[in-house]
Amino acid sequence: MPELAVYQSLWATEQRIPGIEEAPIEARFEQVKAAGFDGMAVDLGALDLATAKTTVPYFARYGLGGLLTAFPKSIEDLRPALHLAKEIGAPFVVVVGQVMPLSLDGMIPVIREWLAVAAQEGVPIQFETHRNCITNDLFTALQLLDAIPEMRMAADLSHYVVDREMPYPIPAELQVQVGRILARSDSFQGRIATRQQVQVPIGFPQHGKWLDVFLAWWRDGFARWKARAGADDRLIFLCELGPRDYAITDGDGKELSDRAQEALMLKHYAREIWASL
């Protein structure tokens, strides 16, 4: 039977409180395991490759699955990330591509070249729906999907809610377009956005309607994935609630909510959706 695995992001365990040193990376692996997550994702946008390599032994030590997010600034820049992915047992690499041609005709060869590098290394890649990268814009991403049938996505729809400043309720046309992204997505990331803010506190009542939007999208995406999955396939849902400046802060620079607790809420929601399918 296909199964769901819920991961936490190493980046999301950072506190970034001025004057206070971060907890050691190994201690954060231990905390993530104790919190009941199935794996840990390493984000090469938040730490350099050399530091990322120090995490390799922790995956086996704490029994956590591995995942990697890469931010390649050239075609060949992806290759070292693919090598590290093999070391941590990541089933694929999420790509936030930093080569950003202005035209669609310029983008298509870049995507194809990254796919070719991934095929050479034997590591699948998924392109994240992310701002400030080659898939920055929802409309352009849809055109890329039309042009490149083998292109697969990692859906972090918070970026596109802000990118398109989606109104609430979501118009029918936009729902159809999001559905096209979900149909090509092989993993999902947990963050709740509004049309103005990419990451809002989950438990605040004024954000409840947006939480419902994302829960419905995840349910749709999970169902589409499960319908095409093989018996031994594993769907990864990554909780990725980023530290400041993703996390909203008050006038004293303190975060408005407890991200660790919110990650547990997201884990619960994901597993609840999966069980309902």
UniProtKB/TrEMBL annotation:
Instruction: Provide a Gene Ontology MF annotation, just one.
Output: isomerase activity
Q: Does the keyword Isomerase apply?
A: yes
Query: What keywords does the record list, in alphabetical order?
Result: Isomerase
Q: Start and end of every Xylose isomerase-like TIM barrel domain?
A: 62-166
Pfam family example for this protein?
AP_endonuc_2
Q: What is this protein's record name?
A: Sugar phosphate isomerase/epimerase
Q: Please report the organism this UniProt entry assigns to the protein.
A: Oleomonas cavernae
